[in-house]
């Protein structure tokens, strides 16, 4: 029995050790890097010439950057859902997905922080925020909770990595010098003594408990950036719950997408099985239905009342300039994925992956629709302003920075997936032993 | 050839007028300009004349800014009748008080005509605006039982005489608009030239001393133009402004944040970052344990 266990363990280790990029991987990284570089060049132009290179003006002062920021914050919540909630609820099947969720959370929260600095124009304004910020301002709360969430996510990624780092250190030749140095620096002290394991497990439990309220805070506070501002479309008492339900949906959708890509790229079919897609598909359906319910509340009730001051905003979304985008976001982000994933066949890897992509793409446009149309419909009429102030379409610099940040997030996920085992090795071995026993 | 020459000059001038004088109606096209003239007397002091220039664009009237006008008393033929040369503002309006040099002419008769012409514009020479008004004055008075009386008098050859049947608005002056003193807005003068109104706004807020301002006015009257007078009375409720400037509020400056918010935010930050600090210390412990076991 012990022999067979050892053999199984070795196979698991060999299967799950980080693998070098193949040709496709290199091309993928190259393309992402190219997008990042174009984004950096656009940011250089913004630093040199100021925010005037963007299409944001007096009325639309929050454009694609803030939409992107809300999107990243939303995605980052997945770390708390898959890792913390499932771990605390003892959901065994989610174990192979925990690292993917943690990596997505870390990458997304890094770029959420960066994009908010980009939105400020000059980066020193971020420093001024700490010097002169008001604790009464939701923007200040957001900065505090995002910083906190970032550190918790890093710790939640790091602690469960320790046993895997010990394993990785055994394969110096396969890892290469550079990576081996990194593994040594990060985890050479992990000897798997009972005391260490006890302290590690305790820390992970504490992190799982801590991250849930912080994750709720991070997105609730982000929603308050809008809801505490008296504007059509944002004047809601329900924005916190609405944002969190949307965040869990896009986070779960992104995990499904990442699961499929990593499974394909690293041949992990034995570890990320159709069962995982089936389970995650169910979760995505549940979250999409929940988010759809909140959307109905957020749009149908104001539409029923159709207050004069909100009429232009709502009509613009339902049947006006933003109608194609609005219905695209609702259909692609919620309704079509629900239809696909409600059926067992739809929860197979390929259709689930397609539904996941739809959820993520729909979610990005949904954030754009939450931010921009409202800014174009202030309660006070726009009067005596240049014609261009009545519309907003991002400049190429804004697109380049936004796309660059999305590419940057994917790059961080890809690189972390290259450096660290994308599926926790030690946990998989332990699970295997438990199953055999 | 002469009429054609004149027409061309006229067209050129019109073009200059619209390009050089920055019409407010930004999409205003060339069209005929019209002037309306109004006469205004405020608190029976030096009266003024106001002219308004409009043009019709796409079937709608739009005001025109930057148009030079000449305002006259009685007629525009004598240079001594000139009140002032003015230019319309962004609302298409231009106003001038009757200067001291015309005091004798203003006092000479019971009624006068005020004239506005496009200064130096041959194209629009024929488009003049005028208004003929009789010299009049309005008084406002109050009684101890909170009754307001407004009296309108007109100048006749034998002096000031009360005027019957003039519509007078009696109201309370507020920040943006006037508020009726009771359910009626307009009162008509009787044979003594007096219109009476009962004050029924007992609880209305006044200034720190409870003062409010009553107004009586005649608007766009065919005979007398616009007359306006006001009087301050202590009939309002005393209003003590409450300044929140130095208080700790959510909308105050950073050093005036509410204590409860500071306590709440700080305690949350301390607890959460305390946990994080504990977890980092935990890592150091794990590291030490690793060193010992090696």
Task: Explain what this protein looks like in three dimensions.
The complex is a heterodimer of chains A (437) and B (294). Chain A is an all-alpha fold. Chain A has a domain of 148 residues. Chain A contains 18 helices and no strands. The longest helix of chain A has 34 residues. The radius of gyration of chain A is 23 Å and the shape is globular. Chain B contains 3 helices and 17 strands. In chain B, strands 1, 2, 3, 6, 12, 13, 14, 16 and 17 form a 9-stranded mixed beta sheet that branches. A 4-stranded antiparallel beta sheet of chain B has the order 5-4-7-8, with no helix packed on it. With 294 residues, chain B is an alpha+beta fold. Chain B has 2 domains: 132 residues, Immunoglobulin-like, CATH 2.60.40; 98 residues, SoxY domain (Immunoglobulin-like), CATH 2.60.40.2470. In chain B, 20% of the residues lie in helices and 38% in strands. In chain B, strand 4 and strand 5 form a beta hairpin. About 5% of the residues of chain B have low confidence. The radius of gyration of chain B is 33 Å and the shape is elongated. Classes of the chains: A mainly alpha (437), B alpha+beta (294). Chains A and B meet through helix 7 and helix 11 of A and helix 3 of B.
């Amino acid at each position: 029995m012990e022999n067979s266990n050892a053999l199984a363990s070795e196979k698991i280790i060999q299967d799950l050790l980080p693998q070098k990029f193949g040709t496709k991987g290199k091309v993928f990284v190259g393309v992402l890097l190219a997008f990042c570089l174009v984004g950096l060049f656009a940011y250089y132009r913004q630093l040199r010439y100021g925010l005037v290179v963007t299409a944001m003006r007096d009325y639309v002062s929050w454009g694609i950057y803030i939409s992107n920021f809300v999107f990243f914050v939303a995605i980052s919540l997945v770390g708390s859902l898959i890792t913390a909630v499932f771990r605390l609820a003892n959901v065994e099947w989610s174990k192979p997905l925990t690292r993917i969720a943690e990596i997505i959370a870390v990458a997304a929260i890094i770029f959420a922080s960066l994009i908010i600095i980009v939105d400020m124009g000059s980066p020193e304004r971020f420093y001024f925020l700490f010097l002169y910020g008001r604790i009464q301002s939701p923007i200040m709360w957001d900065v505090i909770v995002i910083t906190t969430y970032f550190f918790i996510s890093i710790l939640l990624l790091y602690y469960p990595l320790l046993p895997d780092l010990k394993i990785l250190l055994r394969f110096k030749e396969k890892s290469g010098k550079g990576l081996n140095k990194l593994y040594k620096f990060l985890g050479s002290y992990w000897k798997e003594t009972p005391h260490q394991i006890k302290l590690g497990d305790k820390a992970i439990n504490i992190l799982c408990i801590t991250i849930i309220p912080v994750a709720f805070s991070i997105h609730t506070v982000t929603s308050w950036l809008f809801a505490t501002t008296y504007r059509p479309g944002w004047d809601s008492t329900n924005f916190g719950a609405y944002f969190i339900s949307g965040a869990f949906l896009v986070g779960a959708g992104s995990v499904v997408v990442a699961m499929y890509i990593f499974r394909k790229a690293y041949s992990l079919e034995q570890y990320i099985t159709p069962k995982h897609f089936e389970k995650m598909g169910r979760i995505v359906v549940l979250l999409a239905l929940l988010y759809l319910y909140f959307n109905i509340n957020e749009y149908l009730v104001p539409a029923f009342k159709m207050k004069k001051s909100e009429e232009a905003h709502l009509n613009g979304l339902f049947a006006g300039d933003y109608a194609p985008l609005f219905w695209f976001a609702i259909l692609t982000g919620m309704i079509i994925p629900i239809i696909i994933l409600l059926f067992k066949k739809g929860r197979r890897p390929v259709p689930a992956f397609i539904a996941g992509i739809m959820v993520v793409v729909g979610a990005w446009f949904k954030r754009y629709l939450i931010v921009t149309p409202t800014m174009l419909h202030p309660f006070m009429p726009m009067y005596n302003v240049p014609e261009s102030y009545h519309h907003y379409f991002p400049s190429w610099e804004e697109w380049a920075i936004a796309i660059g940040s999305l590419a940057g997030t994917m790059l961080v996920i890809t690189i972390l997936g290259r450096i660290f085992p994308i599926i926790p090795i030690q946990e998989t071995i332990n699970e295997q032993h438990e199953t055999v026993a | 050839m002469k009429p054609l020459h004149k027409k061309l000059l006229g067209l050129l001038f019109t073009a200059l007028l619209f390009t050089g004088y920055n019409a407010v109606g930004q999409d205003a096209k060339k069209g005929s300009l019209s002037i309306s003239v109004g006469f205004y007397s405020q608190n029976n002091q030096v009266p003024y004349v106001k002219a308004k220039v409009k043009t019709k664009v796409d079937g709608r009237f739009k005001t025109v800014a930057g148009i030079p006008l000449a305002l006259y008393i009685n007629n525009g033929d004598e240079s001594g009748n000139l009140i002032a040369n003015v230019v319309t503002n962004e609302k298409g309006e231009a106003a001038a008080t009757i200067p001291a040099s015309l005091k004798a002419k203003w006092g000479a008769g019971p009624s006068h005509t005020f004239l506005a012409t496009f200064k130096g514009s041959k194209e629009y020479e024929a488009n003049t605006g005028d208004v003929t008004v009789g010299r009049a004055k309005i008084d406002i008075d109050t009684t101890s039982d909170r009754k307001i009386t407004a009296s309108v008098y007109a100048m006749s050859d034998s002096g000031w005489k009360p005027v019957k049947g003039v519509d007078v608005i009696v109201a309370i002056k507020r920040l943006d608009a006037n508020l009726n003193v009771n359910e009626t807005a307009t009162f008509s003068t009787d044979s003594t030239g007096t219109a009476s109104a009962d004050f029924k706004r007992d609880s209305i807020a006044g200034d720190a001393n409870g003062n409010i301002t009553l107004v009586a006015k005649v608007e766009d009257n065919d005979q007398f133009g616009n007359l306006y007078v006001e009087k301050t009375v202590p009939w309002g409720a005393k209003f003590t402004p409450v300044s929140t400037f130095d208080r700790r509020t959510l909308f105050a400056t950073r050093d005036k944040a509410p204590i409860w918010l500071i306590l709440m935010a700080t305690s949350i930050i301390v607890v959460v970052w305390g946990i994080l600090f504990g977890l980092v210390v935990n890592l150091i412990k794990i590291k030490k344990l690793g060193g010992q076991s090696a």
